[in-house]
Amino acid sequence: MDLANSGLSGEAVYKSTCIACHGGDGKGAFPGTPDFTKSKGPLSKNDAELLSNMINGFQSPGSPMAMPPRGGNVSLTDADLKAVLGYMRTTFEK
User: Fold this and answer.
1) pLDDT in the model for residue 63
2) Residue 71 within any structural domain of the chain
3) Percent of the chain with pLDDT over 70
4) Is 1 inside any structural domain?
5) Is 65 domain-assigned?
6) Are 89 and 43 a contacting pair, CB within 8 Å?
């Protein structure tokens, strides 16, 4: 995955956009939000599937609400989303 063309660092994207729902620890800020730290959680999916979910939005089974496309931040580029995925894998993946 080439993160060199990203306008923002993955950490910056996570902390400005994703943290509101997914929490600083990646475990989810409220019920129904996916836990990134679980071994069979969202980060067990491949990058293409996760990026598609991030770009297009996604509703996890059992969650009362869906994640909006691009986490609700339409200014995020595909490169920004790749960078945040890299950050999430490095920070939360077990």
Assistant:
1) 85
2) yes
3) 93
4) no
5) yes
6) yes
Six-digit token string for 23:
């929490």
Please enumerate in sequence order all residues whose Cβ is within 8 A of that of 77, keeping only pairs 6 or more positions apart, or say none. 6, 7
Q: How confident is the model at residue 70 (pLDDT cuts 50, 70, 90)?
A: very high
Helix, strand or coil, per DSSP, at residue 65: coil
pLDDT band at 93 (very low <50, low <70, confident <90, very high): confident
- pLDDT tops 90 at residue 1: no
Domain count, the chain: 1
Q: Using CA atoms, how far apart are residues 71 and 73, in angstroms rounded to an integer? A: 5
Residue 5 has pLDDT above 60, yes or no: no
Measured in residues, the chain has a length of 94
What is the span of the domain harbouring residue 72? 10-92
CB of 80 closer than 8 Å to CB of 3: no
Bridge partner list, 67: 58
Domain with residue 65: its CATH number is: 1.10.760.10
Q: 21 with 33: CB under 8 angstroms?
A: yes
